[in-house]
Amino acid sequence: MSTATAFETVIGLEVHVELKTETKIFCGCKTTFGSPPNTNVCPVCLGHPGTLPVLNRHAVELALKAALALNCRVNQDCKFDRKNYFYPDLPKGYQISQYDKPVGEHGYLEIEVGGEVKRIGITRVHLEEDAGKSSHAADGTHTLVDYNRTGVPLIEIVSEPDIRTPEEARLYLEGIKAIMQYCEISDVRMEEGSLRCDANISLRPAGQREFGQKTELKNMNSFRNVERGLQYEVARQTEILQGGGSVSQETRRFDEATQTTVLMRTKEEAHDYRYFPEPDLVRLRIDDVWLDNLRQELPELPAARRRRFISDFGLPTYDAGVLTSDLAIANYFDAVVAAGAEPKSASNWIMGDVLAYLNNRNLSIVESPVSPQRLAGLIAEIAAETISIKQAKDVLQVMFGTGKDAKTVIREQGMEQISDASTLTPIIDEVIANNEKSVSDYLNGKEKALGALVGQTMKATKGKANPGLVNKLIIQRLRERS
Known about the structure:
By secondary structure, the chain is an alpha+beta fold. It has helices spanning 57-69, 166-182, 223-242, 288-297, 302-313, 317-324, 327-338, 343-360, 372-383, 389-402, 406-413, 421-434, 436-443, 449-460, 467-481; strands spanning 7-18, 73-74, 77-78, 81-84, 94-97, 104-113, 116-129, 133-136, 143-146, 153-159, 195-205, 215-218, 250-255, 260-266, 276-277, 284-285.
């Protein structure tokens, strides 16, 4: 193949989302993460002979909410199927899933790329039970299996092959996560496995309609790693095709240490899961009343909240995107504004000093020592010119450490800003009298000399003077001399 050939990337994602239920999908075992191995199990989820599944209604409702939030057509007459395969972490030898009648189909999610909105199609949203977790010994001598996760309810969200770049894949995943979080469908913690993603990627000559041979990527534990893994695959597959080779159908994993993808196994052909209707569960019928009630329970979704932040508060698109990417951050911002803070100031402080402090300590915003109301109080002190922005940064650090409100910190630290002209004028006159060279330079057109005079005034007031007022008063006094 010519080295001049341009290729188009085609990506499809399969996202697994564990649902936020207290018990498993077909039994009463707890779904608590981190319990000792094989303690949240029973004869039902372990697949003992003679046991029967009982469907968790709340899991169905969460799956339906996900389908609605992702603009899917809901199948009001759907069913469960048996997906047959044999693996150590699947004790029954089959998985109860959905095949031809999932809860939702033909949906979409819109992402913003380069200032333009792109719609990514969603093929299906189906409800199923999770499998257990295998832990392989490093020396290859044995494998341990923990069945606690077996039977935890999850949904699989399968995208259309509409994604064209690794960046789009990351943005799509971030959008899925935000919707799941806003609707309280899942806690979406990738580090705990409650949000997992497999990616299928292929390349084809630009303009060709037929798909190329795809490679599957697994075991990516962060959005950034998904993007990096796909970036590596684009480069790897391009090199193969440019060299006249062909891409193998295989499963690979992303190695974070080397920033490369590594072969796991070669796929000779597609699995035959021998799907058939689950005989132990009746068909699931969702009536109009149930569906309408769930639709009304949907919260303001991330896209709608972004639009509101832009239209109602005048925030830039970037700010609105950052603030709405996480439900807790969006709620915190709304609370700061509700407490009286100017929206753009609130956005700046949250995206800057607040998140920096929390990220450095691996804290979420709900764990912030500074409440929304107290941050609004700090912003009010700046607006009232009690303190400067520079002083406010110091005050905020004390607030983080002590939990005290801004007024208390300012008073205890003696940081009240001097904004009274009658107090500052004598100090400025003295600075002017003691800095004749700077005065002469300024009067001779050297604008930078003004900064020296402002600096001397700030030093004389131990940083308490209002810089803007100092600047204004110095210019006024110098004009009177010229």
